[in-house]
Write a structure and sequence with these properties.
By secondary structure, this protein is an all-alpha fold. It has 4 helices and no strands. The chain has a single domain, classed as YjbJ (Protein Yjbj, Chain: A).
Length: 70
Amino acid sequence: MNTPSVESLKAQWKQQVGAAKVVWGRLTDDELLKIEGHAQKLAGLVQERYTIAHEEADKQVKAFFDKHKT
């Protein structure tokens, strides 16, 4: 199985930051860039900023990554 390199994933994430800002407008560009596309970190930020349950944040993040696969 061919897995993308860490650098490749980071580059892909930078392209997705704009889409993430549309979905979660309360998150800053800096926050989104800092998490580098790590789903669990993103879910934690979403949970904190939107005061929602961890399960709901995970669900939103999973749906985002499913929709925005590169």
